[in-house]
Amino acid sequence: MSENEKKDKAPVKEEQQYSLNDDRRVKVLSPGAMVAKRFFRNRIAVVGLVILAFMFLFSFLGGLISPYGEDQLFYRTDLMKKEYAGAVLNVDFRYSAAEGQKMSSAVQAMAVLAIQKGETAFEYGGVDYQVIKEGEDFYRIALADGTTVAVTYKDVIRSSIEGQELSFDLIYNALKAYVGGGKTFSVDGKVYTIGDDGVVFENDTEIAYISRYALNAVSPDVFLTRSFRDQLIEAIENGQEDFTFVNENGEAQDFSVEYKPDVKNWVIYRKQASRVYDMYSFPSKEHWLGTDRYGMDMLTRLMYGGRVSLIIGFIVEAISTLLGVIMGGLAGYFGKWVDNLIMRIVDIFYCIPSMPILIIIGAAMDAMNMDPKLRMIYLMLILGFLGWPGMARLIRGQILSLREQEFMTATEAGGISVYRRIFKHLVPNVIPQIIVSVTMGVGGTIITEASLSFLGLGVRFPFASWGNIINDVNRTFVLESYWFIWIPAGVLLLLTVLAFNLVGDGLRDAFDPKMKR
Amino acid sequence: MRKYIIKRLLLAVVIFFFVMLITYTLMRCLPTSYIEQVARQKSQLPGSKSYDEWMAQLRAMYKMDRGIIAGYFGWLVDFFSGNFGDSWNFTIPVIEEFNKTVWISFWMGLITMFFELIIAIPLGIIAATKQYTKTDYTISILALAFISLPTFFFIALLKLVFSVKLGWFDLFGLIGRNHEQLSALGKFFDKVHHLVLPIVTLVIISIGGLMRYTRTNMLEVLNADYIRTARAKGLSERKVIYHHAFRNTLIPLVTIVGGSLPGLFSGALFTETMFSIDGIGYASYQAMIVGDIPFSMFYLAFISILTLIGNLISDILYAVVDPRVRLA
Predict the structure, then answer these.
(1) Residue A133's domain spans which residues?
(2) Do A367 and B30 touch (CB under 8 A)?
(3) B54: domain range?
(4) Most exposed among A203, B39, B105, B158, judged by the fewest C-beta atoms under 10 Å?
């Protein structure tokens, strides 16, 4: 047997040696310790106490531990897709009227009809036209005397030089050569060559190009360069959805291509990065509970919100308890007209509809654009001032019964001053009731504050409060899709208030000397 | 008894006077944006008086030109002669808006009270008779949880589960989209359907308090000597609890329930607002946040009167129901 164990056993033996009526056999507990013992035996109350401890740590330490500030805003870069251009595979005949000629839409329709039927002539408005096939999907419309009115084609020819129009003769000859597979043609004595990919050169300078795709920029001041067109058409033909284009200044631009089957065209979007508030982002490693509608970290907001809710709860209860104890103490001790007067005031306060009054004051403070900090202080004062009658009634009732007891007669006989008699002898006897009432009152105050803040009439931005965090649920899309905005705040609020009530209940039972268990 | 009632009535009148004096003072201190707004609008009409003249006229009309005390007496006279004025927010006479909204609130309150009584009282009695058992703990914790439940959060949860996820109910409103096409019976059931969630909310948030109250009172009664006597003379436990104990528990219950009867008219501000039900609570909320003084004053006076009547009823009932109480 080791020495340690011997030492442990020694006192046990000593205890056994006490005689039966020895005082040392009885463990004496102070009233406070008795209450504590009874309280801790109540498992539900202890659960409440643990929740409260957690809430205090969460709110007061959490704010310090959290790497983010109360109203720190977060940003993210968002890719904004902006419509840039449209592309269409040309399947319709397009027209170019010869200089000095007109090609009305009715004539165009007749021409298409004639082409589709394979006819070589048609008549419209008393004028005879002939349709001359010059190549695949390329026709010339001429009058009966052979004057060319227009050409119609499916391959689209466009100028490569910004701001320069192509003449009719150039279009006609270029297309004729292109459709016919020719490499060169000449207009007005100038010789042009056509490359494999439909590019038209004049002395090695590119002046136009021919393609089946019709491309148009969405914004009229954007000129689609040829290299861009080439890359775009390549992307379309390969079925690519994204491509990067490097422009003449060497800047890389991201584009995405989307085919719209209903209108049979491609829409080209330009992707642009922009910095936006990181609103309503889902929980992630950086933001464990996501971000709120301003782009602030939700978890940090909850911590600071808890701080505000708890501080307001305690300050309000402190104010109303102080007022209540003074008024109730005076009423209970003096009785007669003092009691009557104070109790009538209490009656009046009981009758004041507090929630409507708070809403009205909140709306008025809104109208005055009051500073949020000042507003919070007023809120605490008003809530405290509206809350004292309950406490006063409780204290008065207790004191009325205590006043008649012998120890009070003794204090009177002993010549102790009135002030000391009330506050040293009467009030301490009421302290258990005060503690219970304050504990439950804090819970109630937190709900009131949260309700007001929920209506937007209590604690305001930039300060966080659980109530004003939940306020966002008024937007239906938040209710439907962003649970992390309002459910955590609501759960914390519910748990805190519940914990205050559980602890208050536990304390009431623990303070009650008649309690059997 | 008669003397007591008269005394209490007189006291109630005095309390009402001071409560409304406080409320009126508060209202008068609000920024009077409404009057300024109307005066500005009217002064801009062609051939109209100047802004200042309109302002003076409107202030006189709404008794804003005299001191607070004089204005208050003016308001009191108007109130008791049934002249409640026109609501600024709803632009119809206050009494009309009140008539339009109060009944739906009343029916909601009545149905809620019915469910509250048939749920809370039995549960409270069960908890008391099985003190310190699992049933008791469950009921007590549930009651506390319901008391601790923030109304607006609970409503949001209900909406998420029953409106968004399950799609059983609409998110807002008292009537559905195709209400007008329905038959009379269909219209009635449409309204009932839309009132399910609000009433569930009201019942849940109100049963906690009554449950605890019933349990506490039942426990007190169960510890009384006459219950011990009843047990000692060999009555069955059923008889002891439901005949001897329950009847005595009813005394405080009748008092508190009787006292809360006038409250049926006062509306449920949060529930009605969040479900957009045009009850008196929602109407008063709209009026209060825009500073509609005539309607707000009327509503506050109405609520104060209800509270006073409630207190009176519960005090009188206390004396009537409990033969041991003799009023001096």
Answers:
(1) 91-154
(2) yes
(3) 2-80
(4) A203
Question: pLDDT for A232-274, tens place per residue?
Answer: 777 877 777 777 777 777 777 778 787 877 777 788 887 777 7
What is the model's pTM?
Answer: 0.75
Instruction: Return the residue in A38, A43, A44, A360 with the most chain B beta carbons within 10 A, the one to mutate for interface testing.
Output: A360
Same domain, B105 and B250: yes
Q: Is B10 on the interface with A (CB under 8 A)?
A: no
For the beta sheet containing A252-260, the strands, ordered from the edge strand earlier in sequence to the opposite edge, are A213-217, A75-89, A265-277, A252-260, A242-246
* Domain identity same for A498 and A422: yes
Q: How many domains does chain A have?
A: 2
> Which one of A101, A131, A154 terminates a domain?
A154
> Would the CA dihedral through A47, A52, A55, A57 be positive or negative?
negative
| Inter-residue contact A269 to A459 (CB < 8 Å) | no
- What one-letter code names the amino acid at B82? G
Nearest to A517 among B132, B296, B307 (CB): B132
Q: How far is CA A434 from CA A41, A394, B53, B102, in A?
A: 22, 8, 57, 39
The residue out of A136, A154, A172 marking a domain boundary is: A154
Q: In terms of Cα–Cα distance, which of A227, A252, A427 is closest to A332?
A: A427
Question: Does any CB of chain A come closer than 8 Å to the CB of residue B152?
Answer: yes
Across B187-214, average pLDDT: 90
The partner residues of A127 in beta bridges, in order of sequence, read A124
How far, in Å, CA of A279 to CA of A294, rounded? 6
**Do A141 and A124 form a contact (C-beta atoms < 8 A)?**
no
Number of domains in chain B: 2
Inside any domain, residue A196:
no
Asked whether the beta carbons of residue A483 and residue B137 sit closer than 8 angstroms, the reply is no
Structure confidence by residue, pLDDT tens digits, A442-471: 999 999 999 999 988 888 878 888 888 888
